Amino acid sequence: MYEVQTYSKEFRELNEKFKTYFKQSENYEQLYKKHFKKQYAGKPTKRYLKIIKKIETAHSTILDYN
């Protein structure tokens, strides 16, 4: 049995809507790791762009539901 299966239906629906918000702290941790490279040869790295995109979507979901 998966952990998510033990959650109530309401919580699973909320989790689906706000999962980007719940994972936001993990994204910031990755972004500010000690040797994380934001750019290489003057261009932003793919990993950096993915994390920034996740953070921006989390902010937009917060603004949509306020």
Order of helices and strands: HHEEH
Count of alpha/pi helices? 3
Count up the domains. Answer: 1
Total number of beta strands: 2
Kindly estimate the percentage of residues that lie in beta strands according to DSSP: 5-15%
Cα Rg: 15 Å
Structural class: mainly alpha
Q: What is the general shape?
A: elongated
What distance lies between the first and last C-alpha atoms, to the nearest angstrom? 34 Å
Helix content: 55-70%
Query: What does the average pLDDT come to?
Result: 86
Sequence stretches where pLDDT stays below 50 over 5 or more residues = none
Q: Record the strand order, biggest sheet.
A: 1-2
Largest sheet features: 2 strands, antiparallel
Question: Can you offer a commentary on this structure?
Answer:
- This protein has 66 residues and is mostly helical.
- The chain has one domain (19-65).
- Helix content is 64%, strand content 6%.
- The chain has helices at 9-22, 24-31, 46-65, and strands at residues 39-40, 43-44.
- Strands 1-2 form a two-stranded antiparallel ribbon.
- Helix 1 (9-22) packs across helix 3 and helix 2 packs antiparallel against helix 3 (46-65).
